[in-house]
């Protein structure tokens, strides 16, 4: 198992040239997005078939649909050109392919740097950027095919601490330990760890499913304890997969029910939210690929998931 070793020299810098409207005297609001390949970002911006036609379900395809194009109105200009960047919202992203950071824009999907990909961070970042007058930083730590039972196993669950739990925490501390170097536009007003989003886990069907509720509860408590934010707002994204509301897969339903149960625990009242995502799944026919485990890489799905995460977090952030 290979884990990326981080250093400040490994991350590249973005050029200054955009002026932020955010209040730089206020604390930087930091949001952590964690999970596996779905959280990495499998949404497709544009993809054409052999005949040169845009494939269904990409963002470029949605722009041609009068019924769905309005959802992207803040990401394009009057000419239909992409203007999705926000210089008041930044992203620091790590996955098994490396690290990348800079202003919020396309390119933080699983294929880091390619503007053909995006994940939940895009619309989540837009929602939080519009909601807050602070500068916003999203730290995204997501590796493909990693589970909560072993890979992200929290300390309180006993046994060996998951190496990706450890990597997640070390990444957060690395970034926050030197924000000004990595993000020169940072105004120096300090920072506040403002929220944590967890999405998707279905890689441990035997041991992992029965103890999912316990492990997720421990993950929330351990992250809060280690980051010293006892009431850290947490959004749990429902395990989505290729199923809509008619899912009949027993293990998937068990995980969905466990995620909902964690959010409903009395000790988490008002600080943890469960977000239903299954209604955002589109069919393979409506999508650019047949990858069931990545929601067919449907751009609309990933936009809606990020939007739902952002709206849920708005309700929790004071």
Please give a structural write-up.
- The protein is α/β, with parallel strands linked by helices.
- It is built from eight helices and nine strands.
- It has helices spanning 37-40, 59-62, 121-131, 163-176, 179-182, 212-227, 250-263, 299-316; strands at 28-35, 43-44, 86-95, 98-104, 117-118, 136-142, 191-199, 234-237, 272-275.
- The chain has a seven-stranded mixed sheet with strand order 4-3-6-1-7-8-9, with helices on both faces. The chain has a two-stranded antiparallel ribbon with strand order 2-5.
- Strand 3 and strand 4 form a beta hairpin.
- Helix 3 (121-131) runs parallel beside helix 8 and helix 6 crosses helix 7.
- The longest helix has 18 residues, at 299-316.
- It is globular.
Outline of the structure:
This protein has 318 residues and is an alpha/beta fold. The protein has 8 helices and 9 strands. The N and C termini lie far apart (39 Å).
User: If you average the pLDDT, what whole number results?
Assistant: 91
Order of helices and strands: EHEHEEEHEHHEHEHEH
Adjacency order of strands in the biggest sheet: 4-3-6-1-7-8-9
Q: Oligomer, anyone?
A: single chain
Alpha-carbon Rg, integer:
19 Å
The count of strands amounts to: 9
Write the topology of this structure.
Blueprint: E1 28-35, H1 37-40, E2 43-44, H2 59-62, E3 86-95, E4 98-104, E5 117-118, H3 121-131, E6 136-142, H4 163-176, H5 179-182, E7 191-199, H6 212-227, E8 234-237, H7 250-263, E9 272-275, H8 299-316
Helix pairs in contact: 3-8, 6-7
Notable traits:
single chain; 318 residues; alpha/beta; seven-stranded mixed beta sheet; 8 helices; 27% helix; disordered N terminus
């Amino acid at each position: 198992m290979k884990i990326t070793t981080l250093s400040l020299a490994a991350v590249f810098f973005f050029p200054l040239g955009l002026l932020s409207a955010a209040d730089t005297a206020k604390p930087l609001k930091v949001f952590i997005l964690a999970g596996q390949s779905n959280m990495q970002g499998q949404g497709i911006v544009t993809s054409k078939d052999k005949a040169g036609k845009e494939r269904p379900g990409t963002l470029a395809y949605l722009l041609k649909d009068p019924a769905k194009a309005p959802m992207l109105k803040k990401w394009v200009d009057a000419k239909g050109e992409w203007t999705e960047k926000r210089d008041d919202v930044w992203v620091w992203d790590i996955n098994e392919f490396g690290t990348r950071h800079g202003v919020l824009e396309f390119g933080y999907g699983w294929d880091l740097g390619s503007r053909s990909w995006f994940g939940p961070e895009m619309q989540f970042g837009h929602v939080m950027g519009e909601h807050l007058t602070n500068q916003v930083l999203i730290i995204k730590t997501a590796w493909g095919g990693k589970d909560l039972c072993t890979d992200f196993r929290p300390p309180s669950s006993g046994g060996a601490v998951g190496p990706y739990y450890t990597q997640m925490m070390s990444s957060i501390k690395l970034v926050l330990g030197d924000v000004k170097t990595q993000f020169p536009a940072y105004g120096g007003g300090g920072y506040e760890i403002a929220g944590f989003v967890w999405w998707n886990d279905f890689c441990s069907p035997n041991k992992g499913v029965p103890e999912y509720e316990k492990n997720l509860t421990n993950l929330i408590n351990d992250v809060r304890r280690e980051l010293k934010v006892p009431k850290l707002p947490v959004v749990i994204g429902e395990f989505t997969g290729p199923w809509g509301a008619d899912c009949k897969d027993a293990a998937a339903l068990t995980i969905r029910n466990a995620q909902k149960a964690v959010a409903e625990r009395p000790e988490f009242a008002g600080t943890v939210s469960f977000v239903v995502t299954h209604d955002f799944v589109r069919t393979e026919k409506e999508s650019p690929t047949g990858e069931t485990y990545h929601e067919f890489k449907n751009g609309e799905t990933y936009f809606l998931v990020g939007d739902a995460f952002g709206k849920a977090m708005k309700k929790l952030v004071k």
